[in-house]
């Protein structure tokens, strides 16, 4: 292949080998015509073939040695010699030394020989075959053991599938490089036993000394029907049936149900292997066996692990992985590991895992120089502009981009400083063209690689088959040397750092190896070599990928994936490195040792790095370690539940059609227009293909909205994540996406647009948690005293200045007291605001009061809407001294002009950015966005967190640790933090920081109990059930408010409906027990109540006829699927889209003149479900209505809920119930 090609290879050698293959292929074709004479070769026996077809009346297995075509002997021997020369010339012997730490970490005992040239599979002689046949001879005992293992996995006689025992064995290895196919009969269909996943290996055998025999490649592709249908015509794309490629290439995953270690015999030597008993994930009746030998034996694996095995498919149920096999196993394939993670894992596997789990500090100057150099280089090769003036012009353009200016601002660097650093690299860009770009090469050195074509820039590749993901700097076509006629596709990795050796660093070479594997997968051809370019030395290094190093990389990936996957409940970090030199400079040493102490019971004397241990953990107490351990475990429990309960984040696991029906995908999309913005964002307008399966559903009904992050992939079940971006706009027939990379093909190519759910919700809270224990931060030390050590908060005894009275003059006494307490606080304050008590108004005036005192404020909440609600209040008060951080598409339209994005987009100098941010008094962001480097640049006097009672402690900590004083605003009697894992909830994960500190420090709580939303009748329900009658109406007007229905007396309604909507009854419960059509049912595994949905529609229609405006009406339901039923029922009503139909959780913070609550549950067992047992959720539902509250449900069912049963007693006492018959 690329790494093994000799510059003196004659063309006739290629012809000889091709002829040899043709003869062997003809012989094999005739052999395969005999139905019972099929062979399957065990992958561990080099190139021996085991004939496992039983004779009639006998179960003996015949072992025979494969015959090597004599015509290939001379060619293969000559090729072997040439490969050895090429290996010496191009450094193939040295590559093993460069990457050997990976292999060493896997094998632990095997040392690679650096003296012998690497042996390719095609360099094989009859003598080699005879020698290896003796070495790898399989004993009768081993064969009997194997048959015994396999017998229990064979289908029973009454099953329709007739599967030959030979299908359990690995595919034959053909020494003459012809394609071997064995057939099995399944449901009267002939299926290829050879898996498409092994296509790369078979095509690899068609490479002769680095030259691809295209004729053979075409035959292989045709035989495997590996047409991915990237360019389907409109008739084809209109069909929702799977293409042949999708049917052929199945991503089949397995679960390990049992594994054992046993011995097998090779050449009179006993060796150990791991035997994995597997069941298919989607069909547990399907079973298989996998043997791990040689290097694979040392790979860690346990019961219940998930795996993908490359050659296990419908026709093959047994796999043997060993050093002579090109097959592989991917453990937890849904966990995609990046090339960067693999590279860092070579030095320290523990650091690689921590780098993924915990964010380190943002960009530094060196990283910024590297990023900008990459962009300049990629622009130059894309536009073929390498003149110095062009490069300087591009550099200046980059230095005027807002994102670059903001980074310079956070690093305290100006444009001139960074420009001087960049100019050191610009000459190397032009030199690269002259040395390595074919049309411009001036060097006389014929051995230099020659790049003939730039295929792609920043090619983004995901592969669940390999378990890798990566972004290739440049994808190129390259000749190994100038005189070569043959071009090979290869990744080009760019490095601006130091070149530590002539071969490049081990980490860099490992990264290139990962990209070779990924590009092989993406482009469906073998890529066994990559390129590594160092700017500083203008050195282009070839990085071959020998089989042993590829295997070592795959094993390393599996080891890291087992530590990173969220599909395992028990999570452990790799062992501590205990290397003083490495640990001293590790950016994760604080988190590493914190975990070591709190989760692994480590001590300074057992760490092996005692001095470093004491420096990073010196000020921490036992309570600190317990707090970290508790919340680390809780966050992992929740992440495990989210991963295992909801698989939608794995876009390859489900078809696009199914995901569209789940509301997380637009399927079968075609590009109709495209545009490029000034900041190099690619805007694509997509529309549905002809005859789309979901054509009747408007696209804007699907719950994908502007601002959602998305992944754009091809509809071929193979090219995942061609680009990422976010939605700009959704209409009935189109969606506009702002993409980060250019789509390579847009003409008649089908795409799928999936909601990006891969951004882990785990990384941010874990990082916040770790940052709380930084010993070098005074703010973090102070926060630990307040949260963990329960230090009593202090207040300033001096009264606030009088000027604040102008701002707070219209507030009630409780609101004024709350603001006063905040102004006096030195540590923290909690404001408990009951429903409708004016929390948003109070918060806005608090912000203004703080700014009047010269304070800098950070305003946050969990949701964008909550942040924007307070900012809108500020705008109403004429206050504009704030900046809003985040994506404008997720914000309220009136707020967008005040975003940093809009305000700074025309700036071209760093000082302009600096002046803008330093004059801002208020910074607003969601809690998950506070890790913005802009915020880290500022010191905040106050942090105000709205909806604090709905935020988990680690997420809230990320915001409050940025300020001297924090104010938490919320109500822990309403919705708690959303925690899906029952185990995590039972251990206290749903206890917010607001709730925790309110219980620990009740003297720091200020209560707002005067509400301005509900009339006194509606208020009485929550007052009795939850607030111990402490809630008061703000005034008489609020207390006596009645729903206005101007046409109530004129409209013609039946008596029952008039009774239900009558404004005289501000609260009414409609009992549906007498209506058999109002019983709950299961539809598509979802709970619904069609009768209640119809009743909702009738009540809504009556209210509208009586004169209620649609926007004043809302419907609340605890179950999402019921929402769709209700929306369908009311869709025929005029202006029905103005009626807000949402879940209880979505209605938190909202209110309407009239609210209809439908409880859905109606059965004879009093089963109300978990949602209706939660008294805090019921409290929210009962406190959203201002003047009229209509409750619909089955009385006999909801009495199964304690809080609802108490509610019914109150309703009975007040005669607010009505039996609907």
TrEMBL record:
<feature type="domain" description="DNA2 rift barrel">
    <location>
        <begin position="657"/>
        <end position="757"/>
    </location>
</feature>
<dbReference type="Pfam" id="PF08696">
    <property type="entry name" value="Dna2"/>
</dbReference>
<keyword id="KW-0255">Endonuclease</keyword>
<feature type="region of interest" description="Disordered">
    <location>
        <begin position="117"/>
        <end position="145"/>
    </location>
</feature>
<feature type="domain" description="DNA replication factor Dna2 N-terminal">
    <location>
        <begin position="283"/>
        <end position="478"/>
    </location>
</feature>
<keyword id="KW-0408">Iron</keyword>
<keyword id="KW-0227">DNA damage</keyword>
<dbReference type="GO" id="GO:0017116">
    <property type="term" value="F:single-stranded DNA helicase activity"/>
</dbReference>
<keyword id="KW-0004">4Fe-4S</keyword>
<dbReference type="InterPro" id="IPR047187">
    <property type="entry name" value="SF1_C_Upf1"/>
</dbReference>
<dbReference type="InterPro" id="IPR048459">
    <property type="entry name" value="DNA2_Rift"/>
</dbReference>
<keyword id="KW-0347">Helicase</keyword>
<feature type="compositionally biased region" description="Basic residues">
    <location>
        <begin position="59"/>
        <end position="73"/>
    </location>
</feature>
<keyword id="KW-0540">Nuclease</keyword>
<keyword id="KW-0479">Metal-binding</keyword>
<keyword id="KW-0234">DNA repair</keyword>
<dbReference type="GO" id="GO:0016787">
    <property type="term" value="F:hydrolase activity"/>
</dbReference>
<dbReference type="GO" id="GO:0004519">
    <property type="term" value="F:endonuclease activity"/>
</dbReference>
<dbReference type="GO" id="GO:0005739">
    <property type="term" value="C:mitochondrion"/>
</dbReference>
<dbReference type="InterPro" id="IPR041679">
    <property type="entry name" value="DNA2/NAM7-like_C"/>
</dbReference>
<dbReference type="GO" id="GO:0043139">
    <property type="term" value="F:5'-3' DNA helicase activity"/>
</dbReference>
<dbReference type="GO" id="GO:0003677">
    <property type="term" value="F:DNA binding"/>
</dbReference>
<feature type="compositionally biased region" description="Basic and acidic residues">
    <location>
        <begin position="127"/>
        <end position="141"/>
    </location>
</feature>
<feature type="domain" description="DNA2/NAM7 helicase helicase">
    <location>
        <begin position="913"/>
        <end position="982"/>
    </location>
</feature>
<feature type="compositionally biased region" description="Polar residues">
    <location>
        <begin position="29"/>
        <end position="43"/>
    </location>
</feature>
<dbReference type="GO" id="GO:0006281">
    <property type="term" value="P:DNA repair"/>
</dbReference>
<dbReference type="InterPro" id="IPR026851">
    <property type="entry name" value="Dna2/JHS1_DEXXQ-box"/>
</dbReference>
<dbReference type="Pfam" id="PF13086">
    <property type="entry name" value="AAA_11"/>
</dbReference>
<feature type="domain" description="DNA2/NAM7 helicase-like C-terminal">
    <location>
        <begin position="989"/>
        <end position="1195"/>
    </location>
</feature>
<dbReference type="InterPro" id="IPR041677">
    <property type="entry name" value="DNA2/NAM7_AAA_11"/>
</dbReference>
<keyword id="KW-0067">ATP-binding</keyword>
<keyword id="KW-0378">Hydrolase</keyword>
<keyword id="KW-0511">Multifunctional enzyme</keyword>
<dbReference type="GO" id="GO:0005634">
    <property type="term" value="C:nucleus"/>
</dbReference>
<dbReference type="Pfam" id="PF21123">
    <property type="entry name" value="Dna2_Rift"/>
</dbReference>
<dbReference type="GO" id="GO:0006260">
    <property type="term" value="P:DNA replication"/>
</dbReference>
<keyword id="KW-0411">Iron-sulfur</keyword>
<dbReference type="GO" id="GO:0046872">
    <property type="term" value="F:metal ion binding"/>
</dbReference>
<dbReference type="GO" id="GO:0005524">
    <property type="term" value="F:ATP binding"/>
</dbReference>
<feature type="domain" description="DNA2/NAM7 helicase helicase">
    <location>
        <begin position="810"/>
        <end position="905"/>
    </location>
</feature>
<keyword id="KW-0547">Nucleotide-binding</keyword>
<keyword id="KW-0235">DNA replication</keyword>
């Amino acid at each position: 292949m690329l790494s093994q090609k000799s510059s003196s290879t004659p063309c006739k050698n290629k012809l000889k080998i091709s002829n040899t293959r043709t003869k062997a292929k003809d012989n094999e074709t005739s052999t395969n015509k005999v139905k019972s004479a099929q062979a399957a070769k065990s992958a561990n026996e080099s190139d021996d073939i085991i004939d496992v077809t039983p004779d009639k009346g006998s179960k003996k297995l015949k072992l025979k040695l494969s015959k090597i075509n004599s015509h290939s002997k001379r060619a293969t021997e000559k090729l072997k010699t040439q490969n050895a020369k090429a290996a010496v010339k191009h450094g193939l012997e040295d590559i093993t030394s460069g990457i050997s730490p990976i292999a060493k970490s896997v094998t632990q005992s095997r040392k690679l020989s650096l003296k012998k040239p690497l042996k390719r599979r095609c360099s094989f002689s009859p003598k080699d075959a005879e020698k290896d046949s003796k070495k790898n001879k399989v004993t009768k005992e081993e064969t009997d053991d194997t048959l015994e293992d396999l017998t229990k996995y064979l289908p029973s006689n009454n099953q329709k599938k007739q599967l030959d025992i030979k299908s359990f064995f690995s595919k034959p290895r053909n020494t003459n490089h012809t394609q071997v196919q064995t057939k099995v009969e399944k449901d009267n269909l002939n299926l290829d036993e050879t898996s498409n996943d092994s296509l790369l290996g078979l095509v690899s055998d068609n490479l002769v000394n680095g030259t691809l025999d295209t004729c053979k490649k075409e035959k292989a592709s045709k035989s495997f029907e590996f047409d991915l249908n990237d360019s389907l015509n409109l008739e084809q794309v209109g069909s929702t049936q799977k293409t042949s490629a999708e049917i052929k290439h199945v991503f089949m995953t397995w679960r390990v149900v049992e594994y054992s270690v046993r011995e097998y015999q090779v050449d009179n030597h006993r060796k150990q292997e791991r035997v994995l008993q597997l069941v298919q994930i989607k069909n547990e009746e399907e079973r298989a066996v996998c043997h791990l030998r040689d290097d694979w034996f040392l790979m860690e694996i346990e019961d219940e692990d998930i795996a993908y095995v490359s050659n296990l498919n419908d026709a093959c149920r047994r796999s043997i992985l060993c050093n002579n096999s090109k097959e592989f196993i991917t453990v937890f394939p849904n966990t995609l590991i990046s090339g960067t993670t693999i590279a860092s894992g070579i030095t320290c596997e523990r650091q690689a895992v921590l780098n993924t789990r915990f964010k380190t500090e943002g960009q530094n100057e060196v990283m910024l120089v590297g990023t900008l150099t990459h962009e300049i280089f990629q622009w130059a090769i894309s536009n073929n502009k390498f003149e110095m003036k062009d490069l300087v012009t591009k550099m200046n353009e980059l230095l005027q981009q807002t994102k670059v200016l903001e980074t310079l601002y956070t690093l305290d660097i100006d444009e001139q400083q960074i420009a001087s650093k960049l100019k050191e690299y610009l000459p190397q860009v032009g030199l690269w063209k002259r040395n390595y770009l074919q049309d411009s090469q001036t060097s006389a050195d014929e051995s230099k690689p020659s790049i003939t074509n730039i295929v792609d820039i920043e090619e983004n590749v995901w592969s669940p088959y390999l378990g890798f993901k990566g972004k290739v700097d440049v994808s190129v076509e390259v000749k190994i040397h100038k005189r070569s006629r043959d071009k090979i596709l290869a990744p080009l990795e760019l490095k601006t750092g130091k070149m530590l050796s002539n071969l490049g660093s081990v980490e860099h070479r490992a990264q290139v190896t990962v990209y070779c594997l990924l590009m092989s997968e993406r482009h469906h051809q073998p890529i066994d070599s990559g390129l590594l370019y160092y700017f500083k030395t203008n050195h282009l290094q070839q990085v071959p990928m020998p089989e042993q190093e590829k295997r070592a990389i795959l094993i390393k990936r599996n080891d890291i994936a087992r530590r990173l996957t969220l599909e395992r409940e028990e999570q452990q970090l790799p062992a501590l490195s205990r290397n003083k030199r490495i640990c001293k400079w590790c950016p994760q040493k604080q988190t590493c040792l914190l975990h070591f102490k709190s989760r692994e019971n480590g001590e300074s004397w057992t760490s092996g790095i005692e001095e470093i241990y004491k420096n990073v953990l010196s000020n921490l107490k036992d309570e600190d370690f317990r707090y970290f351990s508790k919340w680390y475990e809780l966050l992992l429990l929740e992440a495990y539940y989210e991963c295992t309960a909801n698989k939608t984040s794995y876009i390859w696991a489900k078809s696009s059609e199914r995901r569209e029906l789940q509301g997380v995908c637009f399927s079968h999309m075609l590009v109709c227009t495209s545009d490029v913005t000034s900041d190099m964002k690619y805007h694509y307008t997509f529309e549905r293909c002809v005859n789309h399966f979901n054509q009747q559903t408007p696209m804007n009904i699907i719950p994908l909205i502007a601002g959602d992050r998305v992944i754009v992939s091809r509809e071929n079940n193979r090219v995942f994540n061609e680009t990422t971006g976010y939605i700009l706009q959704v209409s009935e027939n189109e969606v506009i996406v702002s993409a980060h990379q250019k789509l390579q093909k847009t003409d008649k190519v089908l795409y799928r647009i999936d909601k990006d759910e891969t951004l882990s919700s785990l990384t941010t809270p874990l990082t916040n948690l770790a940052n709380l224990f930084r010993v070098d931060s005074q703010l973090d030390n102070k926060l630990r005293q307040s949260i963990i050590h329960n230090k009593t908060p202090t207040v300033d005894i001096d009264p606030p200045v009088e000027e604040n009275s102008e701002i707070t003059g219209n507030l009630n006494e409780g609101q004024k007291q709350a603001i006063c307490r905040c102004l006096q606080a030195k540590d923290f304050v909690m404001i408990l605001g009951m429903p409708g008590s004016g929390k948003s108004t109070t918060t806005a005036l608090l912000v203004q009061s703080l700014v009047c005192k010269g304070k800098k404020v950070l305003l946050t909440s969990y949701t964008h809407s909550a942040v924007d609600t307070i900012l809108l209040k500020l705008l109403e008060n004429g206050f504009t001294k704030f900046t809003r951080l985040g994506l404008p598409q997720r914000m309220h339209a009136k707020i967008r002009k005040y975003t940093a994005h809009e305000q700074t987009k025309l700036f071209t100098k760093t000082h302009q950015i600096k002046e803008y941010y330093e004059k801002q008094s208020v910074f607003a962001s969601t809690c998950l966005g506070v890790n913005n480097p802009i915020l880290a640049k500022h010191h905040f006097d106050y942090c105000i967190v709205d909806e604090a009672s709905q935020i988990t402690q680690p997420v809230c900590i990320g915001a409050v640790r940025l300020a001297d004083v924090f104010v938490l605003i919320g109500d822990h009697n309403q919705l708690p933090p959303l925690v899906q894992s029952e185990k995590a909830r039972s251990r206290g994960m749903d206890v917010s920081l607001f709730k925790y500190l309110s219980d620990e420090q009740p003297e720091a709580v200020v209560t707002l109990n005067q509400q301005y939303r509900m009339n006194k009748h509606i208020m009485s329900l929550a007052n009795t059930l939850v607030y111990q009658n402490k809630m008061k109406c703000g005034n008489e007007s609020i207390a006596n408010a009645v729903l206005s229905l101007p046409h109530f007396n004129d409209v013609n309604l039946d008596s029952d409906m008039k009774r239900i909507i009558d404004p005289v009854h501000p609260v009414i419960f409609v009992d549906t027990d007498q209506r058999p059509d109002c019983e709950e049912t299961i539809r598509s595994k979802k709970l619904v109540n069609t009768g209640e949905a119809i009743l909702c529609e009738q009540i809504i229609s009556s209210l509208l006829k009586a004169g209620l405006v649609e926007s004043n009406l809302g419907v609340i339901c605890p179950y999402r699927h019921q929402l769709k039923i209700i929306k369908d029922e009311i869709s025929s009503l005029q202006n029905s889209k103005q009626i807000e139909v949402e879940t209880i959780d979505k209605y938190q913070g909202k209110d309407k003149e009239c609210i209809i609550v439908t409880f859905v549950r109606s059965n004879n067992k009093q089963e109300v479900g978990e949602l209706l047992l939660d008294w805090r959720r019921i409290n929210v539902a009962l406190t959203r209505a201002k003047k009229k509250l209509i409750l619909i449900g089955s009385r006999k069912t909801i009495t199964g809920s304690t809080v609802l049963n108490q509610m019914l007693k109150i309703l009975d006492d007040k005669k607010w119930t009505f039996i609907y018959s």
